[in-house]
């Protein structure tokens, strides 16, 4: 059996954006499914599905991501191979169009798991992963959102995330291929008006992403700070190991 699950957001998506989100998720699903259907690997499927959503301005990943407090886009992503438990991740990168592709390159062609900021961008250039100008990632919609938030002086206290609950359009995918291998991938631009350098759960293995052929795969979306505190992705896998493999119960 082959299987693919993709997600493209948490909380209340505005009615005006529902059609775009549904179309974007369906498009990513078709891209990843075509990989699995022709016998491709789970890793290929989740990378291609997530990259499709990074290229879609609808989502908070790649082009169209939320803008941080100083007017920049910083991207996070991770990918994990459940067959080998190898993983790759990037955080706070500003010049990479598809951070999920860079995360996979780190997994496969380095001894590291996580690279951040300019170091991640340098690795991308050295390994021929396409880069872009920071302006390429900024859209008019998010610039307008950022200006509204700035004028309202929001997200300035330790309780700021508890108020407003803007959509979090982090994207992700989990796949099972014909060989029985599982892979997971997650990508995000983080939260609106976040402090520069803020890193959420998405690039942290065990928090926003985890895959293990023996049990299952997880890709999370939501409030990253809470997800990190409970190491949510690995916790779900651990619960599945003791509950007979029931993901709903976990």
Protein architecture, described:
The chain has helices at 15-37, 42-54, 99-109, 117-126, 140-152, 224-229, 232-242; strands spanning 3-7, 75-81, 87-93, 114-116, 171-176, 182-188, 209-212, 216-219. The protein is an alpha+beta fold and 250 residues long. The protein is globular. α1 (15-37) runs antiparallel to α2 and α2 (42-54) packs antiparallel against α3 (99-109). The longest helix has 23 residues, at 15-37. A hairpin with a 3-residue loop joins β7 (209-212) and β8 (216-219).
Number of helices: 7
Main sheet: strands, sense, barrel:
6 strands, mixed
Computed over alpha carbons, the radius of gyration is 17 Å
Number of strands: 8
Average pLDDT rating:
93
Rounded to the nearest angstrom, the distance between the terminal CA atoms is 22 Å
Number of domains: 1
